Each structure stands twice: as structure tokens, then as C-alpha cells.
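Posting for a labmate who doesn't have an account.
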Amino acid sequence: MTQAEKSGPLLDEIKREAAKKAAARARIARWDLDVAVFLFVILILVIILLFQGVSVNIVSPVAIFGLAVVWLIGWRRGRQLYQSFYSEELTKLVQELEEKHKKPIEEVIEETVEEKVQKALRARWR
């Protein structure tokens, strides 16, 4: 089995894990302070309109439009954040994988060098 065939399923697993982590982070981060302030503005606007005696037939579409805009802003922001978080998580997971594989290789190289030195010393003593 070649290195590319071995890394194929591993790369798929890394991509799947990065997508899962990025989706969770984006789901949390898309509802920030700006969206909360906008929701309070819509709520205050609806309350003011109702206290002024404006018909519910007019206030309802204003409230629905405000909620639709909030949902659209959150959806758009979540999609943008997902892309940036996905690339960040993918990079981080690949670096972690490289660090894990880097350690054993260094240890193997050290052992190989040590073994060569020992063999050379044994040969010299004979």
C-alpha cells in the first residue's frame, strides 16, 4: 500500500473532524452582540408602534421582516465563519498529525545513529 493510499482515509477523517469542529464554532459565533442589538431594536420598534395605536396588521409585517433579516444575517455570518473556521481547524489538525508522526521518526533516526556508532566502536575494539 502506498503512502497516498494510507493517507486517503486518514485525510478524510481529518476533513470530517475539521468540518464538525468548524460547524460547532460557527453555530456559536454567528449570534453576536450586533444581532442581539438588532433584535432589541426590532422589539422596541414593535412596542412603540403598538403603544402609538398602529394596527397589528402593520406591526406584524414589521416584526416578521425584522426577524427574517436577523435570521438572514445570522445565516450569512455563520456561513462565512464556517469557511474560516474550517480552514483553521484543518490546518491545526494536519499540524498535529505531522507532529505525531515527526516524533517517532526522530526517535528512529536517533536509534539508528546510536546503533551505527555502537557498531563502529565494536568493530574498532575487535
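Reply:
Got it, the C-alpha cells are right above this. The radius of gyration is 29 Å.
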